[in-house]
Amino acid sequence: MNAIKCARIFASLVSAFVLTSAFAATKEDLEKAMSYDGLQKITVKDIDLAFARPGATLAGYNQVKLDPVDVAFSKDWNPKVPGSSFKISNADRESIRTGVAKIVYEEFVKELQNKSSYKLADEAGPDVLRVKVKIVNLYVNAPNTSSAGVSHQFTVSTGEMTLFAELYDSETGEVLARVVDRREGRTTGRLTMSNTATNTDEARSIAAAWARVLRNGLDKAHAIGKK
To answer: Rounded to an integer, what distance in angstroms lies between the CA atom of residue 211 and that of residue 66?
Structure first.
């Protein structure tokens, strides 16, 4: 499987990965695609799939260059305005997409700046780790819209989204690691109220968990906290 072909099928494989019915059939293909450039499968706590370059280490990186977060909705997500039969507007879809991107970016920045000693960088450098984060298959069960006013809906889960992230050496562009992880919002097993506030809280909680995985990886590489 050549690099160009693998790059082209990444999006479809990641999308298939989060569908329970398709996971068993596509996991092998996804793993092949994620390792097409020599990365090998590793185990990372709280992450579904992780691959890293053999011998690569994060120990030499003290700064992080975080790319703008890209967000893509699930192809099955086609919500309607609460209380009506009309689909939500393109403007509302874009507002939700950019809102999630902003939340994820903010949580990564918060984890790196406020809870560690790592600096955020604007340019490449010898000790700068470049991080590219993409959110795919975003599915919001109870989206609030500009035309809905104050909306309260009842759902079992607020929704789900999947992280697809890559870590690069900022100077060489070499991929050091690649991860995929699907997260679902709160699932209580019973109907509970969902609105803008609960949706935002759930998105922040998921993004913060992903950011902690990155920070913990850097900490482990630097042996922070070890005696």
So the answer is: 11
